[in-house]
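Repro case for the chain-ordering regression, as requested:
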Amino acid sequence: MATSIKDLPRDEVVMKGHGACAGCPSTLALRIAGKAFGPNAVCVMTPSCTVASLGLIPKAAYDYPILNVCFATAGSSASGIVYAYESLYKKGKLTGEMPTVFTWIGDGGTYDIGLQAISAAAERNDNYIFICYNNEAYSNTGVQRSGATPKFAATTTTPQGKMEDKKNMPLLMLDHQIPYLATASLAYPTDFYDKLVKAKNTRGFKYIEVFAPCCTGWKFPSSDMIRISRMAVTSGAWLLYEAENGKIKFNGPTAKIMEGKVELSPLEDYFSCQGRFASINRAANKEEIIAEAKNKILADIEFMKKRAAF
Amino acid sequence: MKTILDTGCHIVAQAAKSAKVDFVSAYPITPQTSVVEEIASMVQRGEIDCRFLPVEGEHSAMAACVAAAATGARTFTATSSQGLLYMHEVLHMASGCRFPIVMANVNRGVFAPWTIWVDHQDSLSQRDTGWLQYYCASLQEVFDTIIQAYKVAEQIKIPIMVNLDGFVLSHCVMAVQIPDQEIIDRFLPTVEPAWRFDPQNPTSYVSVTGPDLYEGFRTSLHQDQLKALDLMVQAAREYQELTGLYHGDLLDLYRCDDANTFVFAMGSMAEELKLSVDILREEGIKIGLIRLRVFRPFPKEAISKVLPEDATVVVLDRNFAFGHEGGILFSELKDALFTRRDNVRLLNQIMGIGGIDLTYQYMAEQVKNLLGL
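-- result from build under test --
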């Protein structure tokens, strides 16, 4: 039976009084991760919004041991901790239950500067959970384009809208043949929670990417974060799935979309409520642009259907 | 004590084994490659009780070492040249975290153009990363210095780089005495780290600090660097008492007692210079050798003490201080002697770049030329 929101542990790892924006998706996601992993866990963070808004010394707002590392090194730093723990627990220099090791990294530290070390850790099947909170831009430095920024989205380095498609990072990670991979959305928090618990109970390299609509970067009211998270899924812009040992299973609304049981919600609605897509609304060829974006989504869905059946 | 005959790279691996490291992460690069191969093999054969993390590059190797050190593990790595340069960002992190990581660096010139042979540009370019630096002149010294480096690093909580010349030492076979494990264990007890990444103590480790805190952390690293000199002397002496093996404290002095002229150098070329000194002595020149074992912290007072008034020092550099006169050792020595009011005379030559062979005859000739003889 699916977990109910009421079943989630009451423990809170993010304390009150932090400096994150109202409606920050990363902060909510980290709260859920804390509930899933419990107190015996350690986390690695690279420079990101989470560090800047929650982690400043001496006012750190998370009740979690968090090691801050160099930007490109999330993948290798977490591996270093895991291997060192394995050595120290084997030798009896540390005793008790080995902590769960996970990373909390933005799309910049995952898709772009951190990719090499993550790929290597996945190939070695190192025993930790890599979590990417994907807000589709370098939000911490003021919203510049990243490899996760979708086509047409305006950022401070793509003021007229990005010209290129984002890369498909979850698929890249899936093809590293890791034992567990999942995408998640904050509109479906229990699905996210269950995936975190599953990752915790799986040995080897786990990759979870949670979609994180950033009201500041994407330019929408902070109260709309969950609504936009949901629209991303129902419009097909973000697909919810998990893969155990490479076997893909679609979740939530994405499963229904894949089965053809529901229609995609209008992409126009998803675009029109975000300031980063404002140039589309102003464009003379608005319908053409939306058709292109929609066709890309349909192509991705068709590809993933075949990939899942493979 | 047993004596083994092996290459420099394998002696480095043997030293890591004798230091009973918990964790090694490294990436192969010529001429360090067989250090990685040997440690990986030792781990697979169960000869060393440690975890080896075969990363995809040196930036990751140092990142993994820093993270492993954060758990309290005794950590080792080895690299060379481009690999060391690639680590640069994380070297700063390692010293800033005050982790006693020990790294062997097999000295090799840097790109461009490509070279695989020895000079000291790679490690000297890391001068201001906050790492302590030793330079070795024999394989016995390589082994002994790695053991001593752990002792010092764990006392002062600063990482240490132990340098050995590419090919000249890394691929050369020499007899090395390996002290009994019990002796090494007595010299090198397990020390609690300065701090540990601890699930029981949930906070943000090594995070953003304001100017009020940042300066304090950096200043203490600077001050403790200078304190390391005494610890390095103590380590060399204590190791000598336990094993009988000794290569000098901060300096290795050769025929310096009555000298008025000195050659000043480090690495394998400095060992070769002992023969040059012998030749020049035969010609009546009152010359001695100061071989620098420790480059960081720079042993300013120890050097100054050796030099009499009006001494002439010939500094031989295997590196460039680009945009400044001469080599880096020359600059460092000039700076160290600046406050002396006598007329110490300093001469400099850069030589042996990119692996040019430095024979004792050649160096003796060069020293004579510099002296105008």
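Ordering looks correct now. Chain A has a mean pLDDT of 96.
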